[in-house]
Design goal:
321 residues, mainly beta, Jelly Rolls, 2 domains, 7-stranded mixed beta sheet, 5 helices, 10% helix
């Protein structure tokens, strides 16, 4: 594969195209400054304004959220896995019906695998614009987002209505629900009972791992972060590894399905059968299936890279306590 053929599979951080109207809380005070990015796959955006950088199916989706300090993402849930790692900034993740069942603060490089089926939200609690990178299970990302009832109600008060067809209608743009389309009905009490209120020890113990702990484990070989044998033992339809300078190798290898490289720290030179490129933190590269390649740091200093590849495991929930 030539460099020109590979270029469409590389998304540079500086070329990411944000959407500020991706979700139902786009006008809600405190959430109205969010920037949503869909990097690989269709994502879960509710807006036709969302730009998709790479539409090739991988068995999972890659996205990102960029937010100013004190900006938050409202309480929601997914039917498939949702994994975040902090690229920049300091972030508070919270969960529960009202967002008060528990919380944890993540620093740069930290990762969280949020149990499927609980309401969760997050906010930038740092002092500068921050970015978190997201991995969502499945090619269709579980069919979208399930919002806590109060989020839907708040959105209506600020001009946004979510139709039962999964699309947003903005009264500030003069939009109305099409004939025959009803507003999305908020979940009732019976449905809400199926969303557990998990304790901090359950969520943090299961799904949070700290960057420097993973770096220490990646001294001689890549750290298996998420997988059947990972330090987070889960099978969400993909596996996540962390590579560092000491665990990177010049040996060429390939996978029987597309894989994704996402540098966390340092610059990485990726070589494949036909060319090479250099990736920086925030860049995302999709490596085609069966293509021999390697990734090694190209400069001195700290270097780490997240690697994601799909598996044959179902993309739904795999953890029940």
């Amino acid at each position: 594969m030539t460099p020109a053929e590979m270029e469409p599979r590389i998304v540079r951080y500086g070329e990411l195209k944000p959407c500020k109207t991706a979700f139902i809380d786009a006008h809600t005070p405190g959430s109205d400054q969010k920037e949503n990015f869909t990097i690989i796959g269709g994502g879960v955006s509710e807006s036709p304004d969302q730009h998709v950088h790479i539409s090739i199916p991988h068995g999972f989706n890659i996205g990102a959220a960029g937010q100013q300090p004190k900006c938050r993402n409202s309480l929601h849930s997914h039917r498939t896995a949702e994994v975040f790692f902090v690229l920049s900034g300091r972030w508070r993740f919270f969960w529960g019906r009202w967002g008060d069942a528990g919380e944890v603060v993540l620093e740069e490089g930290d990762i969280i695998n949020i149990p499927t089926g609980i309401f969760r939200g997050f906010e930038n609690v740092g002092t500068d614009y921050g970015m978190i990178m997201a991995i969502l299970g499945g090619d269709d990302a579980g069919g979208g987002v399930i919002w806590a009832p109060q989020v839907i109600e708040d959105a209506r008060d600020h001009g946004l209505t979510l139709g039962e067809n999964g699309s947003l209608y903005d009264s500030k743009r003069g939009e109305t629900l099409p004939v025959g389309i009803k507003p999305m009905a908020p979940l009732g009490d019976a449905d809400l009972q199926t969303f557990p209120e998990m304790t901090p020890s359950e969520v943090v113990g299961f799904g949070v791992r700290r960057y420097w702990d993973m770096v220490a484990l990646a001294k001689d070989r890549p750290c298996k972060v998420i997988g059947e044998t990972g330090i987070i033992r889960d099978k969400p339809g993909f596996e996540v590894d962390l590579l560092t300078r000491s665990s990177a190798t010049l040996d060429m290898h390939s996978h029987d399905r597309p894989s994704v490289l996402m540098p966390m720290r340092g610059h990485w030179r990726v070589t494949w059968d036909g060319g090479e490129t250099t990736l920086a933190p925030g860049d995302t590269m999709s490596v085609p299936e069966d293509l021999p390649h390697n990734a090694v740091p190209s400069m001195t200093g700290e270097a780490s890279l997240y690697h994601i590849v799909g598996t044959d495991d179902p993309a739904g929930a795999t953890w029940r306590g």
